[in-house]
Design a protein that fits this description.
CATH architecture of the largest domain: Alpha-Beta Complex
Protein name: Enoyl-CoA hydratase
Order of helices and strands: EEHEHHEEHEEHHEHEHHHH
Organism: Microbacterium pygmaeum
GO molecular function: catalytic activity
Shape: globular
Helix content: 40-55%
Number of helices: 11
CATH topology of the largest domain: 2-enoyl-CoA Hydratase, Chain A, domain 1
CATH class of the largest domain: Alpha Beta
Amino acid sequence: MTEPILFSVDDGLARITLNRPTRLNAFDEATSRAWERITAEAVSRDDVGAILIDAEGPSFCAGGDVLSMAAGGFSADSIAELAGVINRGILSLVESSTPVVAAAQGTTAGGGLGILLASDYAVVGEDSRIGSLYANMGLTPDLSVTAHLGRAIGQRRALQLVLQDRLLSAAEAVEWGLVAEAVAPDQVRARAEAVARFWLSGAAAAYGQAKRLVRAAPEVSVVDQLGDEARTIGAALATPEAQTRVAAFAAASARKAAK
């Protein structure tokens, strides 16, 4: 049996690959439970400093498996329960101190938008299309779309997506701030991996904590956020890596000033 999600770790990079290309990588029960298990493992491993989410086939993710829904494969209770399972995986990524990059080729729609929003940096193809499309099927957004979309692009733009059947072009998605970059379709994975390797080649722990602080900010008071910032930078400065990098930066600045 083919695994619905592939998982591997290589030199600090965890790769999570959606692997149902004939169903546009839509989530069924097996995929949902694999997602929860794999994301929890990825963020808990000491040998992982960055996570890359990609997908097999021409599209990134179409959300829930509509064909299974139409065939009676989901009841109201079961789809709500599986949404909770997927949400736990999304929370594993969002609440972690591990930076996440997504390589999203082709179309991303429905709950796939929530998977994309679970990343901290998204790379798409120049021919990609991204949208909501829930209401086309009489459904409401799930998988963190209403929790994260407005924070990512602003409430008014979020409403434009969820209240219309609009699919953003890659250029529009970049302009709206929904994704970071649009590259040639055959370069999406390579560029996303380059982003992840950039994190790993630098101060990976600092990038991870910066991600955590920004993600946490809407949930806490300014006073608590400032306290968290102060504690985090203090802990970072105490690490040998930061001390080495600060010393190198200061030495380079001194040489530049002396010229």
